[in-house]
Specification:
Elements: H1 2-20, H2 32-75, H3 79-121
Helix pairs in contact: 2-3
């Protein structure tokens, strides 16, 4: 009788455990995927705007390099000031270059998000 009671208890526990563990796990719910796609679109839009700004920065930096010396020559600005301005512009150019590198990394990251969301849909 003890043996039968133990077997019955083990059987009940086994059934309870089996019921507690879901048979299939969802990769992503119905709200997660659309929200992820929405964020992906937002990130892509912001990154595109950043790329456009970077392009404008690059044009202005090139313009600054040529226009400052010309203007300084016309109004006889101190050479030391011109050198400082051009040095500042070079530092600014390096920051803009870093922004361009960051934009490329963001593109790669957004592509990974897209790939993951696509895999979750399937």
């Amino acid at each position: 009788m003890k043996f039968l009671s133990i077997i019955t208890i083990l059987l009940v526990l086994t059934i309870a455990i089996a019921q507690a563990i879901p048979a299939t796990k969802r990769k992503a719910g119905s709200k997660v995927i659309p929200l992820g796609v929405s964020f992906e679109d937002s990130y892509q839009l912001i990154n595109t705007q950043s790329k456009n700004a970077t392009s404008k920065f690059e044009k202005k930096i090139a313009s600054f390099k040529t226009e400052i010396p010309k203007a300084a020559k016309e109004d006889q600005t101190d050479e030391k000031t011109v050198k400082w301005l051009l040095a500042w512009n070079e530092k600014y150019e390096k920051l803009v270059d870093e922004l361009g590198v960051t934009n490329k990394k963001l593109d790669a990251s957004i592509a990974k998000l897209h790939k993951k969301l696509k895999a979750l849909k399937e």
